[in-house]
């Protein structure tokens, strides 16, 4: 695990990716590359009226993520490793389920022109959970901008993530069922995951408890 230079934690809203990315970053003494959803001025309105605010919300996140990934284009072999809580490739996942046909065509053109050539992650940890678990976690953390998220939207998101990673082959992937794992409050769970990462032998493996 100490040889990982660029590690990404991904998953739908409420899966726990940012919390896990922070803890992995601390373990690896890594630089954190974390999404900043509260900086997006459209996000709260998006969850109230998706059809109206999907495009500006998506474009803001695209520009934000591209800016954050830019420094990783030419990594210094002596620099610290990096841990991110997003994979830029997944931007199109959100765009497909929130944008209309014409908006999606426009977004694809902007995405193609803007997308930086970031390095391929050494490992992607993909956190899965059922929509009911995701919505419970979202409600528990009570972020103001997330109050309008519906379980139907999270179900669609979880399904889209599963489909995305079913076809994703660019980097090794550890698929983790996070429903019975708490990487923040239970040290044993975190150490189990670290051990699982260290023991990976193939490019696609699964980890689950219970």
Overview of the molecule:
- The protein has helices at residues 17-28, 43-48, 50-69, 91-98, 101-114, 131-141, 151-167, 187-198, and strands at 6-10, 31-33, 82-84, 123-128, 173-177, 204-207.
- With 210 residues, it is α/β, with parallel strands linked by helices.
- It has one domain (6-207): P-loop containing nucleotide triphosphate hydrolases (Rossmann fold, 3-Layer(aba) Sandwich), CATH 3.40.50.300.
- Helix 3 packs antiparallel against helix 4 (91-98) and helix 3 (50-69) runs parallel beside helix 5 (101-114).
- The longest helix has 20 residues, at 50-69.
- The chain is globular.
Task: Output the CATH homologous superfamily.
Answer: P-loop containing nucleotide triphosphate hydrolases
Low-confidence runs: none
CATH topology: Rossmann fold
What is the top-level CATH class?
Alpha Beta
Helix and strand sequence = EHEHHEHHEHHEHE
Largest sheet: 6 strands, parallel
Number of domains: 1
Numbering strands along the chain, what is their spatial order in the largest sheet? 2-3-1-4-5-6
How many beta strands in the DSSP annotation? 6
């Amino acid at each position: 695990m100490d040889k990982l230079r660029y590690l990404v934690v991904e998953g739908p809203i409420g899966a726990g990716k940012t919390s896990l990315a922070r803890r992995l970053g601390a373990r690896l003494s890594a630089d954190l590359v974390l999404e900043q959803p509260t900086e997006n001025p459209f996000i709260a309105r998006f969850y109230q009226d998706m059809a109206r605010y999907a495009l500006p919300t998506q474009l803001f996140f695209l520009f934000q993520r591209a800016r954050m990934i830019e420094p990783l284009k030419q990594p210094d072999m002596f620099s610290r490793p990096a841990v991110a809580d997003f994979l830029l490739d997944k931007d199109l996942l959100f765009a497909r389920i929130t944008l209309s046909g014409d908006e999606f065509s426009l977004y694809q053109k902007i995405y193609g022109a803007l997308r930086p050539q970031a390095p391929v992650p050494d490992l992607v940890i993909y956190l899965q959970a059922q929509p009911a678990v995701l919505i419970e976690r979202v409600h528990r953390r009570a972020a103001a901008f997330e109050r309008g998220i519906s379980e139907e939207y999270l179900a669609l998101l979880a399904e889209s993530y599963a489909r995305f990673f079913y076809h994703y082959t660019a980097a090794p992937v550890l698929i983790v069922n996070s429903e019975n794992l708490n990487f923040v409050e239970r040290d044993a769970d975190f150490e189990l995951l670290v051990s699982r990462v260290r023991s990976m032998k193939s490019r696609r493996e699964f980890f689950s408890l219970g």
